[in-house]
């Protein structure tokens, strides 16, 4: 059993819960997820099974797309609807699309973001949410993130001193959308929080392709799970691809250093290149050699 299962993660489960359930359904210990989603968040969660667990890091690096709802008028400890209210301010008048669109557009590009206290970011070997639960406030490092698109996708509901609207954001790995919701509120002059979130795309994978756990359970009962898994080769389609002949494939399986094709001379050290055989099976992940620019070396052999 190997490949990538596209799960439509349900609300109320952590990403680790989903992995644990999938281990039981697939009857294998080798299951890993490709990017943590908070319990209340639903949507695209690719799960790697069997040998595909070796490529988790290459799937987590992809850009992701979310559809989020932000509520303007009060903020919470967790920056989402599950937290306790920490600040409130009634929205005066009504927010209008031109105001909101201007704020959303201002977030596009490379910006700095401070991770929320209730997050899994580690400081001195301890996760931030562990400090938060103990009532300890620690200094959090800012990080650079990239917002490719941030667009209003709904009407603005102004009622009882609160304003709510939905926006779609495509962003880089490590972006906290609930923190974006807070930033949107700050730019509008009000406390805010994220009141709903769904991940609609992770790299090349979209929500329409995903299965619910109910559907997975039916497929397992029919003994057809392997047929629903995306192969390792397909899952790595976003990476630069190099197809080699069988003679060279044997060297790749043994972890040999290879000549870097002229087409890849602009590749930076550390950037992955997926190596495929003539059967379109992904054999290994290579990268430009750190000291010999005309060569490339393996960073992960997938088929032995």
TrEMBL record:
InterPro entries: PsdUridine_synth_cat_dom_sf (IPR020103), PsdUridine_synth_N (IPR002501), tRNA_psdUridine_synth_TruB (IPR014780), TruB_C (IPR032819). GO terms for molecular function: RNA binding; tRNA pseudouridine(55) synthase activity. Belongs to the pseudouridine synthase TruB family. Type 1 subfamily. The keyword Isomerase applies. The active site is at residue 38. One of its GO terms (biological process) is mRNA pseudouridine synthesis. Its EC number is 5.4.99.25. Residues 23-177 form the Pseudouridine synthase II N-terminal domain. It comes from Bacillus weihaiensis. Responsible for synthesis of pseudouridine from uracil-55 in the psi GC loop of transfer RNAs. Gene3D superfamilies: Pseudouridine synthase. This is tRNA pseudouridine synthase B. The lineage of its organism: Bacteria, Bacillati, Bacillota, Bacilli, Bacillales. It catalyses: uridine(55) in tRNA = pseudouridine(55) in tRNA.
